[in-house]
Amino acid sequence: RFLLICSAGVWEFIENQEAVEIIASKGPSGVQEAVEELVYEALRRWMAEEGSVIDDITAVAAWLRPPVRGPATAHRQEVTVPDVYEFIGDEGRPK
Questions:
Q1: Short-list 94, 74, 69, 73, CA closest to 84
Q2: Pick from 61, 48, 52: which is nearest to 1 by CA?
Q3: Can you give the pLDDT at residue 51?
Q4: What is the Cα–Cα distance from 78 to 36, expressed in whole angstroms?
Q5: Contact at 8 Å (CB) between 83 and 24?
Q6: Does the pTM of the predicted model rise above 0.70?
Q7: Are 10 and 58 in contact (CB under 8 A)?
Q8: How far apart are alpha carbons 8 and 82 in whole angstroms?
Q9: What percent of the chain lies above the pLDDT cut of 70?
Q10: pLDDT computed for residue 78 by the predictor
Q11: In this structure, are strands 59-63 and 2-6 parallel, antiparallel, or unpaired?
């Protein structure tokens, strides 16, 4: 499993399934190469279709580790929204 976040400049010419296949094809160890391939393919398609007009093309991918099973999960600490606000503070800065 991985998380893929892209700007509209990627989604304009790359379908969801194609983006997933590009990232998945390289696996966790090739995530940098896969993201570069995705971005360059979007750029290539923008150039072919629109010439010199190109939207923002940004992509971030992160492979997720499977959840830990067994006794280790019993010690997991839950984080709630008030905990986050206490850390961030009223003005968006860590306390």
A1: 94
A2: 61
A3: 86
A4: 35
A5: no
A6: no
A7: yes
A8: 33
A9: 73
A10: 53
A11: antiparallel
